[in-house]
């Protein structure tokens, strides 16, 4: 389906290889995963087999170097994949976190041994990755985390809890933010790679959290009571670098969210335009009524402008020039745009827009969290205001 307002627009970074990847991803999501959507929503988490299949097709770790089994690409490849996932209406697989965030931490800061040990499994889908920063007492104030890791011989003993962890129910590998120096704030934080495959002693997964949207993706609480983690799993091999590592990676995390936001806007405009052409009221198609035309024109324009801003950010990121404030602007503007566009498009469906039978209803519920996770939009405004 073509996208009104985006016809003829090509991302300035796009090459033929991206088209091949998009085709492969579209086929995988639409033919192999989406048909299971109803069942996955009921079970509240994706199928592990779908991660393995994505790995088999080469769709995981697209930006991981080939020497670790990855695609050897860059963020543009991850962006194409995530865009196609959203366009297909597939929301179970937490690839945005798994490939878009977790592999990035290990790739950028891992020692050679850590990269060898963990990246191939993440690329094949045998390991499902998660990132644990948020705690029950607060997520925005990352410096205030309380989960602590105390050195004990060749290990750390980790005690504390995390909440809202995407992929948390299935996760095999968790990049976990802990305090290694209790007396310091930001400079006392480290990241530990935790192997959760055999449910280690002192580790417990809590309930999967019931949410208003994203029903087929698992979000879980995780508890640690003197869980033993080898000191060799300290990301980067030195203590108290975690806050800097997180601050460096957060712009990419925000870009990942922004990619999903633009794809959702695009899909909403496509669905609403198609509906407005078919549905009749007062003797003519909805698209023949001036208000519907104006609403869709607004939404198509917002989508086009958002796409261009996103592409500028993707190019900056590729050059290593995506600064914190610009990434925050992208996350803020594009997720606010997503919520507005999806809401206005839902209205065009009338009563049907409020029924789960129509995908626009699901998109409405799924959109809301985009303004919350990855740093709330209030925190984004704060980051932007700091450079004014
Ligand atoms: C579906 C889902 C998936 C998630 N996945 C992950 C994950 O994989 N890993 C992970 O670590 N976390 C994850 N999160 C957590 C998410 O990042 C946090 O919810 C978010 O950062 C906000 O933290 P909080 O919920 O503790 O809110 P709080 O920090 O308690 O904030 C509450 C409100 O106060 C506002 N506020 C706070 N500080 C300020 C300030 N200085 N100025 C103005 N307003 C302020 C916030 O904007 C918000 O509106 C996920 C959350 C959800 C819902």
UniProtKB/TrEMBL annotation:
Keywords: FAD, Flavoprotein, Oxidoreductase
One of the Pfam families matching this protein, by short name: Acyl-CoA_dh_N
Presence of keyword Flavoprotein: yes
Bilayer-crossing regions: none
Biochemical pathway: Siderophore biosynthesis; mycobactin biosynthesis
Any single biological process term in GO: fatty acid beta-oxidation using acyl-CoA dehydrogenase
Cofactor(s) of this protein: FAD
Family affiliation: Belongs to the acyl-CoA dehydrogenase family.
Annotated protein name in UniProt: Acyl-[acyl-carrier-protein] dehydrogenase MbtN
């Amino acid at each position: 389906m073509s996208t009104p307002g985006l016809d003829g627009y090509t991302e300035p970074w796009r090459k033929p290889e991206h088209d091949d990847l998009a085709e492969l991803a579209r086929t995988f999501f639409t033919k192999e995963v989406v048909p299971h959507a109803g069942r996955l929503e009921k079970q509240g988490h994706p199928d592990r087999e779908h991660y393995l299949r994505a790995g088999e097709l080469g769709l995981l770790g697209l930006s991981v170097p080939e020497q670790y089994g990855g695609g050897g690409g860059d963020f543009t490849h991850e962006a194409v994949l995530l865009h196609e996932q959203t366009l297909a209406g597939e929301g179970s697989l937490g690839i945005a976190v798994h490939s878009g965030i977790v592999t990035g931490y290990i790739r950028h800061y891992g020692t050679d041994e850590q990269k060898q040990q963990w990246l191939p499994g993440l690329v094949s889908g045998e390991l499902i990755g998660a990132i644990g920063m948020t705690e029950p007492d607060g997520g925005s104030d990352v410096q205030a985390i309380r989960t602590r890791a105390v050195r004990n011989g060749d290990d750390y003993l980790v005690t504390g809890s995390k909440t809202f962890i995407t992929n948390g129910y299935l996760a095999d590998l968790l990049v976990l933010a802990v305090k290694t120096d209790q007396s310091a704030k930001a400079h006392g934080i480290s990241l530990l790679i935790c192997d959760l495959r055999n449910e280690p002693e002192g580790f417990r997964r809590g309930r999967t959290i019931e949410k208003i949207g994203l029903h087929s993706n698992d979000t879980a609480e995780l508890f640690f009571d003197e869980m033993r983690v080898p000191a060799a799993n300290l990301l980067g091999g030195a203590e108290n670098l975690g806050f800097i590592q997180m601050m460096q990676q957060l712009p990419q995390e925000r870009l990942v969210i922004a990619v999903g936001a633009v794809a959702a806007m695009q899909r909403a405009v496509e669905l609403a335009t198609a509906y407005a052409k078919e549905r009749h009221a007062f003797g003519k198609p909805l698209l023949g009524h001036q208000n519907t035309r104006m609403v869709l024109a607004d939404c198509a324009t917002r989508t086009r402008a958002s796409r261009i801003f996103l592409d500028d950010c993707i190019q900056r990121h590729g050059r290593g020039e995506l600064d914190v404030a610009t990434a925050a602007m992208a996350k803020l503007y594009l997720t606010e745009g997503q919520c507005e566009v999806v809401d206005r498009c839902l209205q065009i469906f009338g009563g049907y827009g409020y029924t789960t039978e129509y995908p626009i209803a699901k998109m409405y519920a799924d959109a809301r969290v985009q303004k919350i996770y990855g740093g709330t939009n209030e925190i984004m405004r704060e980051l932007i205001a700091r450079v004014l």
